[in-house]
Amino acid sequence: MINSCFDRFGVMIDNSRDAVMNVGCVKKYIRILEKLGCDFLMLYTEETYEVDGEPYFGHHRGRFSKAELRELDAYAREHNVELLPCIQTLAHFNALMRWPVYGRLADMGDILCAGDEEVYALIDRIFATLDSCFTARTVNIGMDEAEYIGMGRYFREHGPCNRMDILVEHLRRVAEIAAKYRFELVMWGDMFYKLTGQAEDKAAFDKALAGKIPPNVHLIYWDYYSTDKAHYDARIENYKRLQDDIWFAGGLWNWTGFTPHNSYSFKTTEAAVKSCVEHGVKNAFMTVWGDNGGESSRFSVLPALYTAVMFSRGVFDFGEIKKGFEEMFGIAFDDFNLLELTGTPTAEGICNAEKYLLYNDPLLGNMDSLITGDEGERYAATGRKLAGFSGNKEFGPVFESMSKLCAALEVKSDLGVRTRELYLTGDKSGLIQLLGTYKEAIRRVREFHDAFEKQWMWENKPHGFDVHDIRIGGVLMRLEHAAKRIERYVNGEIDRIEELEEPVLDPFCNPDHGKVHVCYNSWSQIATCNVL
């Protein structure tokens, strides 16, 4: 890392939440990281990579073939970037568990059953694949968010056990397999804290526990949720009681919808980097997740990534940061950052109104209580600005799709609210006029779908877009259905629209919440109460 406060500083990109980057765009990211002077790129793959003897591993999920991984590994080395595998060896296997051949290896939910020899045979085949595809000798083995370890099949077979002992023994077995292939390991460190039932800044450990962590394993303190340096100080200090040579992982927020939250990432990253430097953390990276569908482009966080890199060099002057960004990418920093839909509904921290207003059903209106009424005008203004960059030769598809999303939301945002108001006041002539708005909303949502498809195929493998065909297709069908119901009502074919007669309730079950834009990321909860 050039003039960095860290020995190594890199990026992790999620390739497991439907969106697996195509080889061309991974190479594009590698070239960007080379320009930035970053040391490594982690490819997060839960099961989206080929493993010998495992035909269902990543099946229909756009997995990386071994040939593709070798090609990317060689390309990264040519560009002075180390390609690191980032996998799972305990939990986060929900996609894998759909196949019965792996379902029988589960403890509970998406967690592998520790102690099962078939599990370790699978993990051995995984490491054999990594050994044949990557020249790097560092692997992120995951092991995070496995809160229910030992509480399912393991409990049925072994009875009550110390769950920390289960975790430590499983880690020992995985580390033993990794050592056979000469790998050093890093792992998300949260489970050591979660199994104590205490917060990461307060958990107390048996002194013997630190000695049970295998010598080829280093813990990662991951945290993307605070803008307060003292928050990170307390947790780093507590992690160092367990292991001194920890890594840190921050977040480039783009996993709550179609747009990034770079402005929030600036604040969390500044606090985290300053704390890491003060406490002597030597290895750090920034994560780019893709929760609930991988909707946001990984390139949309470039302002936050560039800022994080500059922070890692001790540069916190945004004037200098913005000047350097434009010189490197050819677009003004603030113009690029329009992708977070600057000027549209915001909230302190994270707000993903662009997602829940798109998927909000015009008849059921699960999110109607949050709508203020000025959203459409604000999206229209931002969309016009974004459209000016749709022809950019490097990142045009991202700007184009977000401009089309803004155009769709200009007419769709409050469509359900307007429909209910006209219905409840008995204004049939108003409803007849509103049918034209439904037709326009359908046209614009379809245009957004087409632009989003273009962006997706430019950046990702085609697998996973089926999810968005289903989701956006559902929006189109519901708009058509609602328009038909309205037409039948005003024509006297039906005497009521039952859904519109139900009261609008706050989705957080808080009647005093008010019209405040928030983060509400689960598609199924946004769209309908009827997906079980």
Give a structural overview.
The strands form two sheets. The chain has an eight-stranded parallel β-sheet with strand order 3-2-1-10-9-8-7-6. It has a two-stranded antiparallel ribbon with strand order 4-5. The protein is globular, with a radius of gyration of 24 Å. The chain has 532 residues and is an alpha/beta fold. The protein folds into two domains: 329 residues, Glycosidases (TIM Barrel, Alpha-Beta Barrel), CATH 3.20.20; 187 residues, Up-down Bundle (Four Helix Bundle (Hemerythrin (Met), subunit A)). The chain is 48% helix and 9% strand. The mean pLDDT is 96.
Short description:
The chain has 21 helices and 10 strands.
Give the full name of the CATH homologous superfamily of the largest domain.
Glycosidases
Q: Which range best describes the helical content: under 10%, 10-25%, 25-40%, 40-55%, 55-70% or over 70%?
A: 40-55%
Tell me the total number of β-strands.
10
Ends: how far apart?
Answer: 48 Å
Structurally, how many domains make up the residues?
Answer: 2
Mean pLDDT, rounded to whole units? 96
List keywords for this structure.
2 domains; 10 strands; alpha/beta; single chain; Four Helix Bundle (Hemerythrin (Met), subunit A); 48% helix; 532 residues; globular; two-stranded antiparallel sheet
